[in-house]
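quick q for whoever's on today - can somebody do inverse folding on this one?? i tried earlier but teh output was garbage lol. tokens:
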């Protein structure tokens, strides 16, 4: 079928992207869903720092690639063997979960090996690609377009593996549902699955973008005292509004001798990791979910790890089992304890993506949602 999508043509284009325009919006051909796959009409898709990391080349991926990995939509057709029903609203998640490999047996601690390999290759977990350039009849073979993390949601429609989606009820609106798939799964999971604070423990979050702010919201919802750390004053203001008892810049955190038993690093830079480690209390746990450049290096004191009995944990996808965790976040949202709508800073169209990437890179945006 003919769809409209936003394709990244090259990695590492210079900012501002509104001028270099590495993303083009146009017609594409989408194959019907294969075995265990579904066709989803996209309703809302969030722009995440992981999209920007592909655009700016920090995490280079094969191109051309149709970006977008945090989304919600409605199943419009099902492939052979698929169990979901047409009309079902689904949350897309950015790591398919085969359920068969040794990694899938670790309760979310390790990312699915099969899904990770497909994501790196820009294919679906069932093998191959379902996306091609739309070319006029008789003008040669159409170029394949890579999938982004098994989702490719910056498009009117997507074909995805059923192992990439989690069904949600229709009372969860698409803009809330979309956030559940990356920001909330990653940030919330960093707290509940990886940090595991004891009841009443203070939780600090370093880096208050979409993922960090989601971590903050989940920690507040679970009754923890929460401290936000970020260099952008507007984000500190929002953190206070969302329930942080204290919100400070990195230097202020150091000057005050701030410490917390569970600290989440969600900024994706070596400096932020060092800040997160520095504010972790003796006996505490530093959880890092950021994705810095592969060459980035941080400096910490190994002695403090030993002498203060510290733990450093890396967490991908919030160490989550999406089918288990997303319903828990939905329950918190239904109970009025997880105001996820506060994470949305802008609602945009596909054509706005270059300017939206610039807003994200500048730190001015939280979650910008492409609405269809
Ligand atoms: Zn993401
Ligand atoms: Zn697996």
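ok took a stab at it. sequence:
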């Amino acid at each position: 079928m003919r769809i409209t999508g936003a394709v990244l043509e090259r990695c590492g284009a210079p900012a501002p992207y509104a001028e270099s325009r590495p993303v083009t919006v146009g017609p594409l051909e989408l194959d019907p869903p294969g075995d265990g796959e579904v066709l989803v009409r996209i309703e809302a898709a969030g722009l995440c720092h992981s999209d920007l990391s592909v655009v700016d080349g920090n995490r280079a991926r094969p191109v051309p690639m149709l970006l977008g990995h945090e989304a919600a939509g409605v199943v419009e057709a099902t492939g052979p063997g698929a169990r979901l029903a047409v009309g079902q609203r689904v949350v897309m998640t950015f790591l398919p979960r085969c359920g068969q490999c040794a990694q899938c047996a670790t309760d979310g601690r390790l990312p699915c090996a099969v899904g990770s390999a497909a994501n790196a290759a820009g294919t679906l977990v069932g093998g191959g690609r379902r996306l091609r350039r739309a070319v006029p009849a008789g003008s040669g073979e159409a170029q394949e377009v890579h999938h982004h993390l098994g989702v490719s949601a910056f498009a009117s429609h997507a074909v995805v593996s059923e192992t990439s989606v989690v069904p949600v009820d229709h009372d969860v609106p698409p803009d809330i549902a979309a956030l559940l798939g990356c920001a909330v799964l990653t940030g919330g999971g960093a707290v509940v699955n990886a940090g595991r604070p004891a009841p009443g423990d203070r939780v600090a979050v370093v880096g208050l973008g979409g993922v960090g702010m989601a971590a903050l919201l989940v920690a507040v919802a679970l009754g923890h005292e929460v401290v936000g750390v970020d260099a952008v004053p507007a984000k500190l203001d929002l953190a206070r509004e969302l329930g942080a008892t204290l919100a400070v810049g990195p230097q202020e955190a150091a000057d005050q001798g701030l410490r917390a038993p569970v600290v989440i690093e969600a900024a994706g830079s070596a400096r932020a990791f060092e800040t997160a480690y520095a504010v972790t209390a003796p006996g505490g746990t530093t959880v890092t979910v950021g994705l810095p450049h592969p060459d980035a290096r941080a400096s910490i004191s190994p002695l403090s790890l030993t002498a203060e009995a510290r733990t450093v944990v890396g967490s991908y996808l919030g160490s989550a089992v999406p089918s288990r965790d997303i319903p828990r976040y939905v329950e918190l949202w239904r109970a009025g304890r997880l105001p996820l709508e506060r994470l949305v800073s802008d609602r945009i169209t596909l054509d706005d993506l270059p300017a939206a990437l610039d807003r994200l890179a500048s730190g001015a945006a939280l979650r910008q949602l492409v609405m269809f």
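fwiw The pocket of zinc ion (ligand 1) is lined by residues 48, 50, 69-70, 182 (CB under 6 Å). also The chain has a mean pLDDT of 96. so keep that in mind when u check it
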